[in-house]
């Protein structure tokens, strides 16, 4: 991403077409948004929060919401784009999920490739705490790759003037 600053002091994200705009590479902090239920989602949220990662949790029912609040997880919404989408389950479950999204959800192949499944560095984890570690490690690794890509694409020096093409 690029953070832009105009001579008038206006700030915005995205590409600038104004020649007098200063542009800076910008990488937002990792924010984890978890949509799920039960022990797996709660363990991942708790681990992410303990790691200092801003965490939001989308839950389906009152019992899960009460458990999340008891653990100190207050952000219970999901919104915005994601650089990484992971789905829990076996390879067979993931294949069925993708077929269902293709047929019933109208998702195309490019959209389907964005979903990492089964999520986690270690396949077939059954313990919620160990699954959370496996998933968080995979997400942090993907985030670090994204950050490196952003910085490699940014023009040096870090402060540069954008010139329209």
Q: Outline of this structure?
A:
By secondary structure, the protein is an alpha/beta fold. It is built from five helices and eight strands; from the N terminus they run E-E-E-E-H-E-H-E-H-H-E-H-E.
Describe the 3D structure.
With 165 residues, the chain is an alpha/beta fold. It has helices spanning 38-50, 62-70, 91-105, 109-113, 128-153; strands spanning 2-5, 11-13, 22-25, 31-35, 54-58, 85-86, 115-116, 160-161. The longest helix is centred in the C-terminal third of the chain and has 26 residues, at 128-153. It is globular. The two termini are 18 Å apart. The model is unreliable at 155-165 (pLDDT under 50).
What number is the mean pLDDT? 80
SSE series: EEEEHEHEHHEHE
**Could you list the spans in which at least 5 consecutive residues all have pLDDT below 50?**
155-165
Give the overall shape: globular
Strand fraction: 15-25%
- How many DSSP H or I helices? 5
Q: Give a short account of the largest sheet.
A: 4 strands, antiparallel
Helix percent reads 40-55%
Distance between the termini: 18 Å
Using only CA atoms, what is the Rg? 19 Å
- Class inferred from helices and paired strands: alpha/beta
* Strand order of the biggest β-sheet: 2-1-3-8
Main features:
four-stranded antiparallel beta sheet; about 40% helix; disordered C terminus; two-stranded parallel sheet; globular; about 160 residues; 5 helices; alpha/beta; 8 strands; single chain
